[in-house]
Amino acid sequence: MPADLVLLSARLLDPGTGALLPHTALAARDGRIVLLGDDREARALAGPRSTVLDLRGAVVLPGLTDGHLHPVSGAERTMGVDLSACRDLDAVRAALADAVRALPPGGWLRGWGLDPNAFGGAPVGHAALGPVLDGVPAFIELFDAHSALAGARALELAGIDGPRAFEQGSEIVCDADGRPTGLLLEDAACALVEAVAPRPTEAEVRARATEVLRAMAASGLTGGHAMDANGDTLAVYAALEAEDALPLRLRVHPWCPPEADDDAVAELIRLQGTGGALWRVAGVKLFMDGTIDNGTAWLEAPDRHGESTRAFWPDPRRYTGVIAALHRAGVPTATHAIGDAAVRHVLDSVAQAQTDGPGAVRHRVEHIETVPDDTVRRFAPLGVAASMQPTHCCEFTRADHTDNWSRRLGEERAGHAFRCRDLWDAGARVVLGSDWPVAPYPPLEVMAGARHRRPADLSLPPHGPDQALTPLRALRAMTVNPAWVAGEEGIAGRLAVGYRADLTVLAEDPLAVADTELAQVPVVATVLAGRVTHRGAAL
């Protein structure tokens, strides 16, 4: 039978060894690689309906996979004004003022990507935005997606006039007189305003998600580990696949919140394995804490504001029980754990689960921003993957520790964090991702950040250069290691006959390009299951 795809005049890069394979061509049929050979052999497999691409020396990699992203919920969140480039309050106010002028009468102002560093060390609150939000219902997400700023009118519409108690670690921040400042910490508090704010239609969300996913494919991504399944997310994936318009292979982790009872956990177990050919529910996402920037992380010693002292789960023992139940059912888990106490509790819980049930389930910890040496050494023996986002360090912290994150942690802990290299050296499987929309999703930018530890514009010195990954390790962390944590190392993450034909084609060898130039390397083509999802200008 003819091949569906034939790639000629290529350089084929093995991320396992970092060496170029002794072949110049690749052919794929029915979504799998059927030939690695020379151009003559590959041409012989081409038929009248085959897609044949002459790559003229471009480099073919196993498809790059983002280990942590939010495609559909992120698409909805980013439908407002983008504040991610605003570095001070003047810039924030100007961007919001432009957006307010474009609002219809009575319309809500939505924004995203607000960096608390823009407040210059002052408390985050709607009062700092002055008359810009006067009378306008506004809901603005901070960059971490764990907090939001609501304007006075939005608080009024939501009936928020003081503090409230929640079943999870959430908070309506209030001043000394008990009046809400507008800052809402964690999901339950934010949901109070979101419940009264207008929502985009299903068609609008699907259109925006389609736009985002196509752009992700154009950046070189062939897959992602999607860390939520909120609202109509699964229906969006199903609809796009039915239209042959899903350009990424997605592994979906629905959330398990602290208030989930045994029936809810059983439903999460039932969902496992459902999906389509390109998307599948294959794990559960949990949260052990919030963020350092908000004072909602779980640290073994308080931050310099006396905060970040408690878990997101009011009863951490319940979390341990849920992990045990999921482990017994063979369900892999991904737990958001930023602070050292949170990470320790996750590892303790996995260790306990492994004493009660089979040990083959591949669990993972997300983010891991600050941990001591003894915790670093625990990942490998437990078989727990370290899922990390180097661009969080690059874009939101500074080497001189003048940023909000570093000031909260203090000098010692801020200088000993985002320990990508230490975890790798200790034998942990490090998986890289973006956490989009928290940080940009282009995978070359993610790998570059892991290598140089600087912001994308290279405007600041590296933060913790001793924790940088080598070029080969960064590449493995977006190819080989995502395949391993998904239990798919026998069909993905390598260029080999029988493996998935999920491919990223670059104009240059990413291992030979300077760290500071990697993000600018052109993506020649992206291939998913043998189907070209993106053609660059060179083709």
Describe the protein:
With 539 residues, the protein is α/β, with parallel strands linked by helices. It is 29% helix and 21% strand. It is built from 19 helices and 24 strands. The protein has a six-stranded mixed sheet with strand order 8-9-10-11-13-12, with helices on both faces. Strands 2-6-22-23-24 form a five-stranded mixed sheet, covered by helices on one side. A five-stranded parallel sheet has the order 17-18-19-20-21. Helix 2 packs across helix 6, helix 9 (316-328) packs across helix 10 and helix 13 crosses helix 17. The longest helix is centred in the middle third of the chain and has 17 residues, at 202-218. The two termini are 26 Å apart.
